[in-house]
Amino acid sequence: MSKYVGIQFRNSGKVYDFDCGHFVLKKGDKVLVVTEEGPAVGCVCTEPQNESGESSDRKLKKVFRVATLEEIDRYERDCQLEQDVYDFCYQKVKERSVPMSIVSVEKRFDGSKTIIYFTADGRVDFRELVKDLVGRFRTRIEMRQIGVRHQAKMVGGLGTCGRPLCCSTFLNTFAPVTIKMAKKQNISLNPSKISGMCGRLMCCLTYEDKFYEQAKKKLPRIGKKVVTNEGDGKVIRQNVFKETVTVSLGSEGEIEVEAAELKELSKPKEHFFKKKKSKKRSNH
Hints:
Blueprint: E1 3-8, E2 15-19, E3 30-35, E4 38-44, E5 49-50, E6 63-66, H1 69-96, E7 101-107, E8 114-119, H2 127-137, E9 141-145, H3 148-155, H4 179-184, H5 191-194, H6 209-216, E10 225-228, E11 231-239, E12 244-248, E13 254-258, E14 263-264
Parallel strand pairs: 8-9
Antiparallel strand pairs: 1-2, 1-4, 1-5, 3-4, 3-6, 7-8, 10-11, 10-14, 11-12, 12-13
Helix pairs in contact: 1-2
């Protein structure tokens, strides 16, 4: 049975699962892996675990090999260089008053280029900034603009629930989130309560959206006129967990009723009368 470990490439960064292959790894080991962006050195941050159940169907990339002392030293020097590039770039952005916010710096392990991630409200002219960076560090510089959601994913932090951000721990893609999802779940539409660290709607609103969509199909919609044992009334609230609704009986108050016990008021029958076609009289 194959084993996998969690590997982290940056401090407090996202943890990625890799197949151990034939290597015997332990927490804290430095390993060399091949990613879509090229070779990279990462740190094993979890103990090896056996794949079982649904996880056994995953196609994980394998650890290439344990990193050598030379590669570990190079990795540490790259981390220091990234910090130097970040500090220098941050200072130049302030001096030149460039309308951008520096998020992170990443140096490719193969030395091909150094990527600077930033956020901005629109397009930014950073040509002079790149000249300063190339003149100072003598390497290829790539400026990459990202959105605020990707910024939160790279920086990390704690959500309103007190746990690490979903985007920086296990989410691989960003699903579209709409205000309709919050309304469907009867959540307060106060922006401070439904917005995440990035300022956008919280990703966790999508987790239970399908459940609420299916559950509400079993309940009469709000505003629907229904018949109860206490009389006719109108639905004013829904409780998807208890599968009950609150019915307003007008002056007699409100009652909570199970949805299965309700009967909808039948619409009054409409009578349609066919109009006889009148024959046109011709005047001669």
